[in-house]
Predict the 3D structure of the following.
Amino acid sequence: MPSCIPVRAWLAACMLALAALCGSPAAYAGDDELSATLIQFRDADFDGKTELVEKLVVLDNPRVAVILNALSDSRLYFQEDPGRVVIGLGDGSEITIEDAVTGAALGQVGKRDLDRITANNRLRSLIEDRLASLGLSSADPSQRRAAIDVFLRNPDPAGVPRLQARLAVETDAKTRQLLTVALALADLANPDATVRAKAATDLGGQLQPEIRGRLAKAAAEDSDPAVREAAQRALSHTQFRLQMLGWAETLFFGLSLGSVLILAAIGLAVTFGVMGVINMAHGELMMLGAYTTWLVQQWLPVNWSLPVAVPLAFLVTALVGIAIERGVIRFLYGRPLETLLATFGISLILQQAVRTIFSPLNRSVSAPDWMSGTFAIGPLEVTMNRLVILGFCIAVFALLWLALQRTRLGLEVRAVSQNRAMARAMGVPSARVDALTFGLGSGVAGVAGVALSQLTNVGPNLGQSYIVDSFMVVVFGGVGNLWGTLVAGLSLGVANKVLEPWTGAVLAKIVVLVFLILFIQKRPRGLFPQRGRAAEV
Amino acid sequence: MSELISDLDGGGLSLPQKPVDTRHGILLYLEEVTVSFDGFKAIDNLSLYIGDGELRCIIGPNGAGKTTMMDIITGKTKPDSGRVFFGQNIDLLKLDEPAIARIGIGRKFQRPTVIEPLTVIENLELAMSGAKRLRGLMTTRLNSEERDRIAAVLERIGLSEHGGRLAGILAHGQKQWLEIGMLLMQEPRLLLVDEPVAGMTPAEMDRTAELLRSLAGSHSVVVVEHDMGFVRSIADYVTVLHQGRVLAEGQLEDLQIDPTVIEVYLGAGDAYH
Amino acid sequence: MLIPRWLLSDRAGLVLLAVLAILGIGVPILSLWTPPDHPLHLSAYTVTLLGKYLCYALLAVAVDLVWGYMGILSLGHAAFFALGGYCFGMYLMRQIGTRGVYGDPVLPDFMVFLNWKELPWYWYGFDHFSFALLMVLVVPGLLAFVFGWFAFRSRVSGVYLSIITQALTYALMLAFFRNEMGFGGNNGLTDFKDVLGYPIHDDGTRIVLFILSILALAGGYLLCRWLVSTRMGRVLVAIRDAEDRARFLGYRVEQVKVLVFTLSAMLAGIAGALYVPQVGIINPGEFAPINSIEAVIWVAVGGRGTLVGAVVGAVLINYAKSWLTGALPEVWLFALGGLFVAVTLLLPRGLIGLLRPRETTT
């Protein structure tokens, strides 16, 4: 497979180059020796070049991998004036070049000013082999593992002795384990059937597609029935692990969706659950929180915007909430249906206000660096932003719970919600408590909006898409019960994601909605109903 | 759809066709009834018998289980165990609220509950027995027999002059009477009356006492009341409930000197005297 | 006198019926028998617009029957409206025949586009006018019956009921957006050609549809007015104001609720069925929760529990909507939102309440 060789060499070189980039770009002590060796390439024949390659390999200079790779690709040139070896970065009559030793960019030169240093296939395979060894003996364990990964993708029997040699001296546990797997993979081609069977067993549970492919091949084609059976067993072991991994992934996505649902619903759990106020403008308060994030990003660098946006969004939406409570809702206590209509009107006004002020188009809120990328939990890779939002949701929940359980305001809120008349008789200023409670619930909605701005489009319709869901979460959990909201949000999120593979996203949502409608028929007061006479209202 | 209509027409879920059997002189049997809410026993092994045509007062401190007992009789709450029979032959536990109402048990709530946007006559018409079938509901006017029945009840509750007024603008006491009148329109065998004189003037109380006394005999009446003076003015026989069970039963004069009763209830303060 | 007493005492209702009669006679004259340049001539566009308002008014009457009289705030009535509309839309689709873009004699265009080979079973029969009319009543009625049966029997009430009706229409909207449902997905049903053989865009057909809308509204109004003036009407009020009282008087509250809810859904279905041929399209957007809530606000503005108020509110607000979304599109949502707040805070009895002084309370 000659066509494979450059690819493999390129891969190995890339990894080494990457490592080199991460390391210091400053000049190495051995640069003089490197350039002295390189100059000799100009006049060497292929045998001479072979020796020179061997010489380069032992130099322990990070540029070696780049140079060897260039040589293998026929991109290594000698520049007559001023007499140095350079690497070409393209093809054509004008070539961008860089210094082979330092990597410094040297601009463009005409092709005729350069003298190509040629390589043949024998040299190329030597380079490839040496590059692999170079990786294996690297001081950095992750580079060593990268080198082994190259082998796993294309197990060349020639590489086996190198791996064995490395295994003898390897101290890093993860690398040792990977080496064992790589050797077992090589053993699958062993002429001895018992070795093959053992190798197949050892490879069970390894998730890399290359290994699964080779096992499947062994299970189908191996001449020895024992090996076929061992491979089959190993495959089902792998299958099991894959399934577990799939479940873990579904669970994570479910929890992630659940955390979004909780964030959307938790403010409602305060205003609807504790106060009994139906606030249809809740979604629009979240939208205001999201727009606050966008505004903050206009002034502050993205990486700093969220820590500022969270308290600011809380403040803004809490104030809007208090204004709504004082201006409208307080006149409607005890008339839930009217409250529903009035707050729906407010939601329309807020939507249109945002459309008028910020335009009806979606605004793009950027993600800070520390929320991009992925994070590995074992073999499971999760996106950083979802993980952060999950954690954020837990933090918001904990803070809200503490606020309701451990503060004076929380005590007064609970007192008013349980028995308004008695609380007033005991000197609780119920009007102030109402305003502050509503402000708290609204503020939490704003904070949720900051999180949502990281997941969805920030536009005037952001709130609408969450309002049905969030009411369902609160009602499902049991009105007036924060823990119920938590459990309801998480379980609905997971249920949605579990259904999705079978039904597709939209149908999953419909199924969950229909389930909720039926559930409320069965238990109108939710999973965790509030008890006692007060709850009868 | 037709099933629904026939159900509306027929008067409901397993409504017994046979009349109430009161050959033993007892109209209502509650035997060993227990109900608990979240571990708290609101009614604890309660047994109570109401005679046919009897006027019974039930007293007891707050939380004694009086309202829960009414809820059980009228089907709002199902007990955990025990038997509730109307006469010897009708098992009330198998019926729902409307069915219980239709076999002749009327209930007045603690808070006067009349339909405020309707007139007094319309309220009574609403309660009229026999009008609850679908066909009976699809009419806009009263026939002469119905008018006579309503007039008789108006007379009885003393609201003859207020027939055309909206129930919402009646005085508090008048609303109480109207609600009792609505019960009478149902032609019940048993009336359950929860605190009929709360918030009434002494004159109104006297008229209410007279009204309830006049009902006894032709109806059985169970009155739950806090006001001792009122109880004394109407009842010959009184049951004291305490912590969900019967503490004592007998003539009011005897109970007032019963030490256990004095301790849990009468002893609680002079407010009840 | 031929007019029954229950109607005679309803003066506002008589005014409404008179206005409808004048419209029913006047509009065809002004539209068909006046020259187009005559100052009083009504264009086809105006006639259609008026017809649309009448459909909305019938929907509002249906909402008022359950909300104003029985106290059930349904935030899902637009679902029944849309279902009635889809049923009639399916008939109109089948009438297109080979005149569609793809010329398939049986399959509507969108099915050909999706590469479907056969008509789904639930489209059978919709080529018959009478079957489609029956379905206009049955489909919304059945949904309301089943939904109400479960919801009312478990005594779901108040805000909870409002929330699950909203969830119901939301779920239906999501479902109808799916192409796999077989109702045209996003685009819904459109490009209708004719109804009972008459070209749907003809002025004459439009006038007939307009007159049918007037008759439907008048009929729906009379049915509801009669119902609320019978003893049943008093039972509804009793259920609204003191549900337990009604139950302990011996009324099967749940069954009454289911019955009236179903009736109301059927009225909404009729309104939807008349709406579709006049506007020429039905799509899943009609299921959007906001449509149901808008219908509620028409009733609130006009005055709940009056029936006439529902008609007045529906026509006024929709007229304002047509005008504002044309003239000042920015302002429309502010106005509508403000209306919600103002009516609930300042005008709890609606416009009709302004005309009719409150009879009394202490």
